[in-house]
Design goal:
alpha/beta, Mannitol-specific EII, Chain A, six-stranded mixed beta sheet, 44% helix
Length: 157
Amino acid sequence: MAADPIPLAALLPPAHVFTGLRAADKARLLQDLARRAGAVLGVAAGDIAGALAAREALGSTGVGAGIALPHAPLPGLAATAAFLARLERKVPFDAVDGQPIDLVFLLLGPPAARAEHLAALAAATRRLRDRQAAAALRAAADAAALRRAFLAADGET
């Protein structure tokens, strides 16, 4: 029997939520996210950026409707961690619909925690792809409101 997935609220503490990000392009956005995640997790930003670049080389994690879900396994990481960001301006991301993105859910996890990683990714995808939830995220006044809106989409707090 599989263990219950970790609630997204546990993977997404307030320090993992960012608003007002600016990036000229996909590469710079991923580097900025890697730098921010690395600072919070105590992991080298270059390691995170390299893992994300390797994953993006397999195909874009831009899922359409202005949303990207970059994710990667990260050797040495003790636990799965999530980050949520809203961009100040949309940025091209090679999304499946060709549209630029402004909402990003970044997921990093230990390579051995693949099932947990996939469950968290699926839960985040369901939330972000809901039009009402995405609209609430785009209307959130600050990082705290952005986190609340994301977690409220499935009744988490």
